[in-house]
Amino acid sequence: MLRINDLHASIGDKEILKGINLTVRPGEVHAIMGPNGSGKSTLSAVLAGKDTFTVTSGEVRYQDEDLLALSPEERSWRGIFLGFQYPTEIPGVTNVNFMKTALNEHRKYQGLPPITAAEFLKLMRQKMEIVEMDPAFSSRGVNVGFSGGEKKRNEIFQMAMLEPKLAILDETDSGLDVDALRIVATGVNRLKRPDNATLVITHYQRLLDYIVPDVVHILYKGRIIKTAGKELALEVEQRGYDWLIKEL
Amino acid sequence: MNDLYTLASGTPNRPRFNCRVPLENSRQLFLVDGLVQETGKSFSFRLQKGQVMEELLQVIAVRSDEGPNELTYSNELFFGENTFGRLLCCAHAFTQGPVSTQETVSIQLEANAQAEIIVMQHEHNEATHKTRFVVNQAAGSQLKMVFLSLHGASIENNIEVNLQGEHANCDLSGLYLADGQQRIANHLRLFHHVPDCQSSQLFKGILDDEAVGHFSGKITVVPDAQRTDAFQANHNLLLSQQARIHTDPQLEIYADDVKCSHGATVGRLQPEELFYLRSRGIPKKEAELLQQLAFAYAVLEKIPNEILRERMMEMVEKRLRGGC
Ligand SMILES: Nc1ncnc2c1ncn2[C@@H]1O[C@H](COP(=O)(O)OP(=O)(O)OP(=O)(O)O)[C@@H](O)[C@H]1O
Ligand SMILES: [Mg+2]
What we know:
heterodimer, A: alpha/beta, Rossmann fold, 6-stranded mixed beta sheet, 38% helix, globular, B: mainly beta, 2 domains, 10-stranded mixed beta sheet, 9-stranded mixed beta sheet, 19 strands, binds adenosine-5'-triphosphate, binds magnesium ion
């Protein structure tokens, strides 16, 4: 589904990703952990098509296409979804209008007619329920004045609306209280299907209690320095990253 | 028809213009080259003491082929004591080639009168339109004006407001959209002559290509005008490297117990917002449009009438999509 091959990316003349290799198959859950500043958000942003980063070499294949040749919207239409670590506030654009526009663009790509207003409202209600979000949020500006946890729920709500094939969740668990963590994790699990895959970026083992990964990768200074099963997350939580760095 | 308000009468002319898409609960009146279509007289609108208008009066000023290239005219809007009235004043040009219009509008609000006036300027690329609005407000009167400058080679609005009676309230806002070689200027002068009045001015502009905008606003608070509450803001969005805006908000305060704020900003589309929208599948052009509409919304939401607001939002969207 996704194959990253020796990916290098920089910002200005600072190289941040220094040769990433990663393969994700349908149905898999991969966790990416790593110290602050190791390049986790950069990797997710590059996969979603953010142009502040320049890919200097390497390639990314997604469903037999050259992912890097596609614009962010084209990637979205093909099923890539990035749950932002810091969701952007967009004053003046309401959540409803935002999601309706987004959904209809997806439908257009799929050759479907625009959704009717009634159908849309129904769908939105359903999906908001998954993340236990108050319907009042729909008429507010996108993420404007949302608390940290509300923003994260809004990300999962959007994910539920767009039903991605490959979801990249960048620290969706950070800043969530215990209940919100459970709600968000349950939401993600409910969207799980055998033909989609999830990349979860996290600092904490506790999320992985809910969203159980098949593989855990450790990213350090722009490289994946270790890949193992889910027990690696627990080990990192207990021992930190030093022992892994020393092994290098 | 039950005539609540009076309009100057004269010899009826054969109507040449009519409205194909009238707004609900509204009445249309055409000003052809500065004169009322049916009467051939200049436009004078008077609401007498206590009159409350249910309908919206749409005054459609058109420039026709028969009018002079350079036209000067004046109108009068009078709102007597305890009246309520709503007007939508539109300017269109049904002529080819260059025309210029100079328009003076005097607006008088007597004690406790309430007025809502939407001004929409929608001429063409060779039309020059210059206005001068002189507003006088008596005690307890409330005026809300929204200026939408959508199309014209050069538009210049000069707006002077005199708050002459205590507890008068004046809320002015404007949205100007310019591209190509268009020029748009708004010059505001606001005088707080007496204590306890409120004024607010919010003007926002979106400028593309080589368009040039000017904004100057000056609020004067005289020494006795205590407890004045005055707000002024001018925000601009530049869509191209060549577009320019000159903005000059000013305060001149001679009273000590006042609440005044003013500010101006010049910005560009936010790349972070753009990426967020695009990452959800909204194409670049649409995402940019959403951002522009979001920017414009703060002015459009000032239009109290919902149907009119929707109509104006459609026009703004069409304009931002490059139509006219
Ligand atoms: N816009 C930018 N300009 C300059 N440096 C940047 C920019 N974005 C990221 N970086 C740098 O790239 C490196 C990787 O950042 P990134 O956000 O990918 O880390 P991360 O692994 O997600 O960290 P965290 O766990 O704190 O979220 C950091 O050193 C960061 O300072
Ligand atoms: Mg990060």
